[in-house]
């Protein structure tokens, strides 16, 4: 084994990796500080990426590097370790991304199978959104119950949200909103969008005023997705909490029914976390109850809520569903999405704090082109000859993954998958298709956002009745 990276041979890298894996496990066993565990995991992931770069193979515990190809078995790719998925961290060792089927088992949710997709089509009378057709929204809780009720003319409402931690939103942030907009259109129902400026103040090193300002700035990007002002209420926690007695009453009810021990178990809080964090989950729970919005639901407390969100938010809503019956409310139903992978690979999600991992909604066509070409992790082969002969691997290819999110035409996408796998389509050509899909999409978003005035933001964010009779 003679390849070198930064002076280290593959064997040295392999040994470093093995040692780092041991370190992560022992830190976890010792229940070490979360920050220390996270740092160790980050290093582990970085070493794995280096290793793969040098060897062209995934690191496999117990199998030192060799010239022979290793199997792509997921269990061994992960070295037997669990993926990390919580509201603050997403990390896996697998280049294919988080194992979502395992997550369903771990979280105790249900898979969105073909039968449910068909049923959504039947009840809504619309072709299912590509996110449903392609398993991007892949898990749910109680969606059948929502559809049963809807078929009996019982309405429901949508609730989603965003933590406004910066001005900079990236394409991954749009996923839940794009899907929520589709749900709102096909079911014709009210939508509430929570901007948790309070949450970001509690968790990040930001001033209250900055968080509040980010909420209003982010609201513009959300509005630019095309929501109907007559059917949508967007609120900042910092503003709405103080102005709505009904909302605050629900927060307090939740607070009374969840113990410190429970949130410790669910969120991993420790004795040194500020009490704001410890009580925050009650604030994310409250919008799941219709009585938190008397102006919309005329005081009704029994309107069923459906929450589209990324799966990392599930801990909040497991807690919410657990308290709901004890305070006399229906449990919210949920639709969970997968994560939007970072440019560098599906081991983690796109993160606004790492500029090179993200395509921002403010990027120019040129920036998009450069980032995709330079940073998008490729499942292609090193040389054209090899690629033509062996073909690429779309399962780990970020450009292909992004196309599954954004390319509407199923047949075109399937053809790309086949051509890439067979080697007819080269990495550069695949990236070009992605660039040509992203550029007009982002430009259109920027146009839409430019047309969102402060006055419109104010309208969306004013508590008021919506165009529904409850
Ligand atoms: N906590 C979420 C975040 O940091 C924001 C959020 C609040 C949310 N309520 C929600 C997300 C409901 C999805 C659904 O992004």
TrEMBL record:
One of its GO terms (cellular component) is cytoplasm. Keywords: Aminoacyl-tRNA synthetase, ATP-binding, Ligase, Nucleotide-binding, Phosphoprotein, Protein biosynthesis. GO terms for molecular function: ATP binding; tryptophan-tRNA ligase activity. It comes from the Eukaryota. Residues 9-65 form the WHEP-TRS domain. GO terms for biological process: tryptophanyl-tRNA aminoacylation. Residues 62-86 are annotated as: Disordered. Its EC number is 6.1.1.2. InterPro entries: aa-tRNA-synth_I_CS, aa-tRNA-synth_Ic, Rossmann-like_a/b/a_fold, Trp-tRNA-ligase, uS15_NS1_RNA-bd_sf, WHEP-TRS_dom. It is an enzyme of class 6 (ligase). Pfam families: tRNA-synt_1b (PF00579), WHEP-TRS (PF00458). Belongs to the class-I aminoacyl-tRNA synthetase family. This is Tryptophan--tRNA ligase, cytoplasmic. The gene is WARS1.
């Amino acid at each position: 084994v003679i390849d070198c990276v930064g002076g280290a041979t593959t064997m040295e890298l392999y040994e470093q990796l093995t040692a780092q894996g041991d370190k992560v496990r022992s830190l976890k066993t010792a229940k070490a500080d979360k920050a220390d565990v996270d740092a160790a995991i980050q290093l582990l992931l970085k070493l794995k990426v280096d290793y793969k770069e040098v060897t062209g193979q995934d690191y496999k515990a117990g199998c030192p590097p060799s010239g022979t190809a290793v199997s792509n078995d997921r269990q061994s790719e992960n070295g037997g370790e669990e993926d990390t998925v919580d509201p603050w961290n997403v990390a896996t060792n697998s280049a294919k991304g988080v194992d979502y089927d395992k997550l369903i088992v771990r979280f105790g949710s249900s898979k969105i199978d073909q039968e449910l997709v068909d049923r959504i089509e039947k009840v809504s009378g619309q072709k299912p959104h590509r996110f449903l057709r392609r398993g991007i929204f892949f898990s749910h809780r109680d969606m059948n119950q929502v559809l049963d009720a809807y078929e009996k003319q019982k309405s429901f409402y949508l609730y989603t949200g965003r933590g406004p931690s910066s001005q900079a939103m990236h394409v991954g942030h749009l996923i839940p909103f794009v899907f929520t907009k589709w749900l709102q259109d096909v079911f014709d129902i009210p939508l509430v969008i929570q901007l948790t400026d309070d949450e970001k103040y509690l968790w990040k090193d930001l001033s209250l005023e900055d968080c509040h300002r980010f909420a209003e700035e982010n609201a513009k990007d959300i509005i630019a997705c095309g929501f109907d002002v007559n059917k949508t209420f967007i609120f900042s926690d910092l503003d709405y909490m103080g102005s709505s007695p009904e909302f605050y009453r629900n927060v307090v009810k939740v607070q009374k029914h969840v113990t410190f021990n429970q949130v410790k178990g669910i969120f991993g809080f420790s004795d040194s976390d500020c009490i704001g964090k410890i009580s925050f989950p009650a604030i994310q729970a409250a919008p799941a109850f219709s009585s938190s919005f008397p102006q919309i639901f005329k005081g009704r407390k029994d309107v069923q809520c459906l929450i589209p969100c990324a799966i990392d938010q599930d801990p909040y809503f497991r807690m919410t569903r657990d308290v709901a019956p004890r305070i006399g409310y229906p449990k919210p139903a949920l639709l969970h999405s997968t994560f939007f992978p970072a440019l560098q690979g599906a081991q983690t999600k796109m993160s606004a704090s790492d500029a090179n991992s993200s395509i921002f909604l403010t990027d120019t066509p040129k920036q998009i082109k450069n980032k995709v070409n330079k940073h998008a992790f490729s499942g292609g082969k090193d040389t054209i000859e090899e690629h033509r002969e062996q073909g690429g691997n779309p399962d780990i290819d970020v450009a292909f993954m992004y196309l599954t999110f954004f390319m509407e035409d199923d047949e075109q996408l399937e053809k790309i998958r086949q051509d890439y796998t067979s080697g007819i389509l080269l990495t550069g050509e695949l990236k070009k298709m992605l660039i040509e899909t992203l550029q007009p999409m982002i430009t259109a978003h920027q146009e839409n956002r430019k047309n969102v005035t402060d006055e419109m933001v104010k309208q969306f964010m004013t508590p008021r009745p919506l165009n529904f009779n409850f």
